[in-house]
Specification:
The chain is of the alpha/beta class and about 800 residues long. It contains 34 helices and 24 strands. The strands form 6 sheets. Strands 6-9-10-4-1-12-13-17-18 form a 9-stranded mixed β-sheet, with helices on both faces. Strands 21-20-19-22-23-24 form a 6-stranded parallel β-sheet, sandwiched between helices. A 3-stranded antiparallel β-sheet has the order 14-16-15. Bound molecules: (1S)-1,5-anhydro-1-(4-chloro-2,5-dihydroxyphenyl)-D-glucitol (Z15).
């Protein structure tokens, strides 16, 4: 096994580096060693940032030891592995999560305490790694946590975007990498060439071709170790950064042309510089396709290089490799695998296709037409000419089969084709993903149903589709963000095992009827609300009443998510308060309405919604007539670490997308797990959540998905006045237009979307929304009943762990087994 040097010397050195997980002095030693050596700082003269960095480096040492053991164990064992390709990884902070997963939180807390620092303060020095926009990116982060925890051999692949251009009021990009990032390991030796543009020459009498010319750059690997909870197993997230092939053009430099000499270098680096800031919205930019191709090609070259070390024939690839595509963003990897097999490995076309279609599986995350990727054919052909040729062949074979099954049905062929006809033509990535995958899944039961019955109706046979309902990791979204509730659960169950088997919390459901437990549960909620109130006071100068109902709608700003329904409900409440007699006021429940979320920079209506929220907050929060009955809060710069403070403090989880539009939602799961009651439409995973918590413990509202189309049609083609659709909403609009919240004209374009067409049924669901809110208020008056429902909600969430989701993928799609690293 040992190939260099003296084995005993090596082993003794490795031993000497071991730190016992309970050894406070040992941990302090490693922290101080990083202070004085890695950071070159003076031990006695250190600020919190320095202390955070040294602590993070010490934790990283622990992670890397495990990472190395996992990697060499899996290299030796060669199990089938899953590769999770996601263009977004919304990881948030790492330090707290890492020490919890290592079971070293107490040790680090004591060690840093002894060195003169408060561990919580150090945690707050860390920047969020925000390589994602919303649900899709955060789902990937939860899934890799679960893959590591379940000991499944798997890696994530993504892009190392340097800045996430954000969409809040100020368009300041978030330079999360402007400090040294201790959580990533540059692997300058792991790099692959990537080609763009160029020309294709066919090789006569073969399906092969030679693709040459154009531009080349390199994709360089950065590795992020992902520790599993209570296991040695440590997964890897490999992120690619673009680099020039030669850093610098010496000829231009020597000729005195400095700009040209660095141009090629910065051109290449620009490819991975930004995270596209849209969520659920396709923008069609060439740079984005470049990002996708660089990431997919590098990942495939990496995966195939690992496979080739096994010295097996290509047709066994599907026994060792499964690639899960997180949405259509990595679909080009299907074509890239075909290209490599055919052109470089000389595998015959049909054999290559047989292999490829056993390797890929595709997860769809949306039915919204504006989110479906379709590349203009000229753009695609210019950037990836060889790939387009392969797509033509894939499409021809596919349509030939369709024609055989449905002779003469030209309409069907046009609908199903990977190429959309028109000027220009388009490449439909979802169709390509479906045709190239052995399994396609949606992310909640209703969503998977809709995929099969509507947008992808005739694209795949029944057993090609399945459902895997999303889940969230209970380590971050309960243990880490709500330590006191986690402790109560552990104490009551008598073990921590629920953290890796969340189903067990259902054993606590009867505690809803235990007055003492209810008291403890409620105290924790109040403490979490007080913690949020402190943050709101210190960061935004806002006072909120912890005895009020905290309603939380925390998600990207999007018309289909209907922050408007919530906001117009608040205005309705405000008008009611203004009119109320002192007697009536006493009966009005106190509300604190909390919004958080970003809008894409170019999404005009979404930004207008933020503007109205902020202006309503300004008026409502300062109106003496309102007193403590209503507060409106918009939290800027929403992030994973902000969510970790909001979620444990929520009383009500607001999930009110138009039925049929939200594929799943995941904040509904996080909020439910922390005891927030569901106020939601019959959409996405709300359906399954309501089923599990029981409909009498949730507040459901609005039209059903099956009825949306008819109502929408009538809104457009047999329009009635807003007054007729909802007199309450008409009154709200009047108040806005009258200038109650500043110049009413500003909001005309927003209001117009509802006056006309009302595509998302805001007016049609407004009455039902207000009725559901009334039920919320009634229940709040009975705190014991409220707490019962809150307990029943939290402990009915056992299915919504990402461990269950990932296990579902492993069993029904990936066919992979756990392969735990031996614990010595
Ligand atoms: C995104 O965050 C989601 C879907 C998308 O197609 C894109 Cl591009 C981004 C979200 C869904 O809107 C949400 O319902 C779902 O819970 C989440 O993905 C994870 O599946």
């Amino acid at each position: 096994e040992w190939t260099v040097g003296d084995a005993q010397t090596w082993k003794t050195a490795i031993e000497a580096e071991q730190v016992d997980k309970d050894d406070v002095q040992g941990v302090a030693n490693t922290v101080v060693r990083h202070v004085t050596t890695t950071l070159a700082r003076q031990a006695g003269n250190l600020d919190e940032l320095g202390a955070y960095q040294a602590t993070a480096l010490s934790v990283r040492d622990q992670l890397l030891k495990r990472w190395n053991e996992t990697t060499s164990y899996h290299t030796k064992n060669a199990p089938k592995r899953v590769y999770y390709l996601s263009i977004e990884w919304l990881m948030g902070r790492t330090l707290d999560n890492a020490v919890l997963n290592l079971d070293m939180r107490n040790t680090y807390e004591s060690a840093t305490q002894k060195l003169g620092f408060n561990f919580e303060d150090l945690l707050n020095e860390e920047r969020d790694a925000a390589l994602g926009n919303g649900g899709l990116g955060r789902l990937a982060a939860c899934y890799i946590d679960s893959m590591a925890t379940l000991n499944l051999p798997g890696w994530g692949y993504g892009l190392r975007q340097l800045i996430s251009s954000t969409g809040e009021q100020l368009e300041a990009p978030d330079p999360w990498l402007d400090r040294e990032n201790p959580w990533e390991i540059p692997r300058l030796d792991v790099s692959y060439p990537i080609r763009f543009y160029g020309r294709v020459e066919a090789i006569p009498n073969s399906s092969r071709a030679i693709w040459s010319g154009g531009n080349e750059c390199l994709a360089v690997a950065y590795d992020v170790p992902i520790p599993g909870f209570a296991t040695k197993n440590t997964a890897n997230l490999r992120l690619w950064a673009a680099r020039p092939i030669q850093g610098f053009d010496l000829n231009s430099f020597n000729a005195g042309n400095y700009e040209a000499s660095v141009a090629s270098s910065s051109d290449a680096e620009n490819i991975t510089r930004v995270l596209y800031p849209n969520d659920n919205m396709y923008a069609g930019k060439e740079l984005r396709l470049k990002q996708q191709y660089l990431w997919c090609s590098a990942s495939l070259q990496d995966i195939l290089r690992r496979y080739q070390k096994l010295n097996l024939p290509w047709d066994q690839l599907p026994d060792y490799v499964v690639i899960q595509m997180n949405d259509t963003h990595p679909t080009i990897s299907i074509v890239e695998l075909m290209r490599i097999l055919i052109d470089e490995e000389e595998v015959p076309y049909d054999v290559a296709w047989g292999i490829t279609t056993k390797v890929f599986a595709y997860t769809n995350h949306t039915v919204l037409p504006e989110a479906l990727e379709k590349w203009p054919l000229p753009l695609f052909e210019n950037l990836l000419p060889r790939h387009l040729q392969i797509i033509y062949t894939i499409n021809m074979n596919f349509l030939n089969e369709v024609a055989k099954r449905f002779p003469g049905d030209m309409d069907r062929i046009r609908r199903m084709s990977i190429i959309e006809e028109g000027t220009p033509k388009f490449v439909r990535m979802a169709h390509l993903a479906i045709v190239g995958s052995f399994k396609v899944n949606g992310v909640a039961a209703l969503h998977s149903q809709l995929l099969q019955s509507t947008i992808f109706r005739d694209l795949k046979g029944r057993d090609g589709f399945t459902n895997v309902t999303n889940g969230v990791t209970p380590r971050r979204w309960l243990l880490q963000c709500n330590p006191r509730l986690a402790q109560l659960i552990t104490d009551t169950l008598g073990s921590e095992h629920w953290l890796v088997n969340l189903k067990q919390i259902s054993q606590l459901l009867p505690m809803a009827d235990n007055a003492e437990f209810r008291h403890a549960f409620r105290e924790i909620k109040i403490e979490n609300k007080a913690r949020l109130a402190d943050v709101l006071h210190s960061e935004l100068g806002l006072s909120v009443d912890v005895d009020s109902i905290f309603t939380c709608q925390i998600k990207r700003l999007h018309e289909y998510k209907r922050q408007t329904l919530n906001l117009f409900g608040i205005i309705h409440r405000y008008l009611r308060i203004k009119k109320a007699t002192p007697q009536e006021r006493k009966k009005i429940a106190k509300h604190t309405a909390i919004f958080a979320g970003k809008a894409a920079p170019g999404y005009y209506i979404a930004k207008l919604v933020i503007r109205l929220i902020v202006n309503v907050a300004k008026i409502v929060n300062h109106d003496p007539d309102v007193g403590d009955l209503l507060r409106v809060v918009f939290i800027p710069d929403y992030s994973v670490s902000v969510a970790e403070v909001l979620i444990p403090a929520a009383d009500v989880s607001v999930q009110i997308s138009t039925a049929g539009t939200e594929a799943s939602g995941t904040s509904n799961m996080k909020l439910g797990l922390n005891g927030a009651l569901l106020l939601g439409t019959v959409d996405g995973a709300n359906v399954e959540i309501a089923e599990d918590v029981g409909e009498d413990n949730a507040f459901l509202l609005g039209h059903l998905a099956a009825d949306v189309e008819a109502v929408r049609y009538s809104n457009s083609y047999n329009p009635t006045s807003l007054e007729e659709r909802s007199p309450e909403l008409a009154a709200v609009f009047k108040a806005i237009e009258a200038g109650t919240f500043g110049d009413g004209h500003v909001y005309e374009p927003l209001l117009k979307t509802i006056y006309d067409h009302d595509y998302y049924l805001v007016s049609n669901d407004f009455g039902s929304y207000l009725a559901a809110e009334n039920l919320v208020d009634e229940l709040w008056a009975d705190q014991e009943e409220w707490t019962k429902k809150s307990i029943r909600t939290a402990f009915a969430m056992g299915s919504f762990t990402s461990d269950r989701s990932v296990q579902d993928y492993a069993d029904s799609i990936w066919s992979i087994e756990p392969d735990p690293v031996p614990e010595n």
